[in-house]
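Quick check before the chapter quiz. The format below is the same one you will see on the exam, so make sure you can read both the input and the output lines.
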Amino acid sequence: MQALSEKLPRFIRNNYATFTIMEYMQGPATCSQGNILCCTCGIPIPPNPANMCVSCLRTQVDISDGIPKQVSVHFCKQCERYLQPPSTWVQCALESRELLALCLKKLKGSMSKVRLIDAGFLWTEPHSKRIKMKLTIQKEVMNGAILQQVFVVEFVIQSQMCDDCHRVEAKDYWKAVVQVRQKTVHKKTFYYLEQLILKHKVHQNTLRIKEIHEGIDFYYGSKQHAQKMVDFLQCTVPCRSKASQRLISHDVHSNTYNYKSTFSVEIVPVCKDNVVCLSPRLAQSLGNMGQVCVCVRVTSTIHLIDPNTLQIAEVDGNTYWRHPFNSLCNPRQLEEFIVMDIDIIRDQKQKAGAGLRSNKHTLAEVWVQKTSEMDMGQQYHCRTFLGHLLNIGDLVLGFDFANANINDEFLNKMNPHHVPDVVLIKKSYDRNKRVKRRNWKLKEMDKDREGMDTDDERQYQDFLEDLEEDEALRKNINVFRDASKIPVESDTDDDGAPRISLMEMLEDLSLNDATGSEGADMMTD
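Here is the expected output.
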């Protein structure tokens, strides 16, 4: 019998239960494990290494001891981000995986001796500033017994403003500034640039936007955000930039430096509806077009058209700075003419090496007279690219070269016979009627105004009229329907002025649309 017992498997010899030799010889089908009494309460239980029932074991051992049941989480109200120690702020939605990971990291140090089995959120009121999490953990306790426990940890949300929002509220604390300048009288390019910034939301990281006489300043809390703005400007308007930095402080112990960076961006000094005179070399490189051209649009390039041949060309920023040219007139110098006679030019022969011609315009020869000199009978003959818009008796805005005193390097060297007497820019409509019919609006950036000109309102109306007349210009911006303005329709008001259709307008969504008014109850059916 002793020799037979030595041949028994080790798990039977080491087991606390009593097995007989006969039971082993009968096979495992007839073996049965007996119950033992709990050493604390005395109830029958299956054998376990601790010789205790689960209830008594939990009274003796608390595996969640050392894990805090209430933890603080810092939340920024302004940007709605949570603090992830030591100094990172992350965006997390309620009951999201990101928020679950952030809360578990707060408990990571105290849960090093237990095993996490499951974790999930318990529902709480969104405004209670409480986040409850249900955790399931396991731990090995007395004599190798594994105990599993479920408990709840409450996270208290405490308000704390992040560093970025501190800089926004301070308005004077900045580390980088982008200074955008354009040396022109009119601000059409700035109005167009403002709409592009609003559409692409490039201004979201700005601490402050300050508008001055010749441009706009964008203040940022980091150099990287300022660099993104510079890259955006270089892709949307023809410009050149220069960067500089100034040392603010220096820590000799940690060898760290604190700089303030300045980015200077200069936009080309040419706006829409400007008359320019190109250098002979540049005009030849653009397809032997005439030197006197009209700027019809400024986007990422300068779009020029020759009023004598309808030849078009595009000049980018790099080309402009290699061959710069100036504007010969500004919108304030435009005069009003009346069309006395017009003759459409059907067949126009192109010169050798000529570039592309515009298909949206029509070449015509016109006789015009100033509306301020109707009693004098002085008429001017010129060619224009507005033949598809003009009729006899229409009013048109143009620049009078014959009676103007212009000091330009390239214009003074031109043959006087090649300089036109008048250059017509655009057809003139009744502004009051256009304002009454306008049922759309544009959004504006929240910026500080300083030293503003009294002529800004007229310039802004000019920009709105340009959007109505140029479909290619307004396709890059967002036009919103103005629900508060009812357009006035009348048969006598239809003077052929271009308008923006409802298909091109967006609905201006605001919180008042859902609540009726600020602070009112939500309207339901």
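If your answer matched, good. Confidence is low (pLDDT under 50) at residues 1-31, 511-525.
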